[in-house]
Backbone:
């Protein structure tokens, strides 16, 4: 779900323009009109109505969590939230946390923005931009309580696996952003990728696994569309939990 491409919305009347930063490019290079042909009417309307309240544009410079959310609750970042169903439920039921959701998929971004706006989920903020760029340029070290990464693209073919999200450099980046006691929680239905997650995170300095291997299912995580597809194919669902020492 997390790709090497992100998009930000600029504060232009009705947010009709989308500026895109493409892989390997140093600056945004293209703009697209946000028309109904790409989104359903309610999704387009959600961006126009709610983005200025719940959306955060990409801008190099560290975020002040208290300023962003208006309180001192711990912050959890979800990377690649897809259609956002699990995100909305978790944010509503576990409202002792604030949540920053990162997703480059336009339809999913707009759908969750609609849910957040209609539900007045004031503990959620959303960004449509590449996670590495956001974490590197906008998130202070040792400031995050947790990371959620649910069903990232497994890139199953061997020649594609270098594109997987959970690899050593990214794991080190995540660990650097965690507070002591913070966690990384990953879920996948691709068993070989799950083993890779365990291996990579086990060898990341500063992280520890409170379980002997995979963690037991976490009850507060909602079943996602990707999980349902995996279960239909009889794929095992593996959950990985690591904590910052």
Residues:
């Amino acid at each position: 779900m997390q790709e090497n491409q992100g998009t930000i919305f600029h504060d232009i009347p009705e947010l009709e323009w989308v500026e895109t930063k493409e892989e390997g490019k140093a600056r945004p290079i293209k703009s697209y009109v946000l028309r109904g042909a790409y989104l359903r009417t309610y999704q387009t309307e959600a961006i126009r109505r709610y983005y200025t309240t719940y959306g955060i544009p990409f801008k190099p410079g560290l975020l002040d969590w208290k300023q962003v959310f208006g309180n001192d609750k711990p912050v959890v970042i979800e990377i690649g939230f897809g259609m956002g169903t699990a995100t909305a439920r978790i944010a509503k039921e576990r409202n002792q946390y604030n949540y920053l959701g990162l997703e480059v998929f336009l339809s999913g971004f707009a759908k969750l923005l609609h849910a957040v706006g209609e539900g007045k989920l004031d503990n959620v903020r959303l960004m449509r931009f590449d996670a590495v760029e956001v974490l590197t340029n906008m998130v202070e070290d040792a400031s995050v309580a947790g990371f959620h990464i649910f069903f990232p693209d497994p890139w199953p073919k061997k020649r594609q696996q270098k594109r997987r999200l959970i690899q050593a450099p990214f794991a080190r980046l995540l660990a650097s952003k965690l507070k002591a006691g913070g966690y990384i929680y990953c879920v996948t239905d691709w068993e070989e990728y799950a083993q890779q997650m365990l291996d990579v995170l086990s060898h990341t300095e500063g992280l520890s696994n409170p379980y002997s291997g995979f963690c037991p299912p976490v009850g507060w995580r909602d079943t996602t569309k990707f999980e349902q597809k995996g279960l239909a194919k009889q794929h095992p669902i593996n959950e990985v939990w690591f904590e910052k020492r």
About this structure: Residues 41-54 form the longest helix (14 residues). The helical segments are 41-54, 65-69, 85-93, 106-119, 131-138, 168-177, 191-202, 225-232. The beta strands are 6-9, 17-21, 30-33, 75-79, 98-102, 124-127, 144-150, 178-188, 207-208, 238-244. Residues 1-25, 27-37 have pLDDT under 50 and may be disordered.
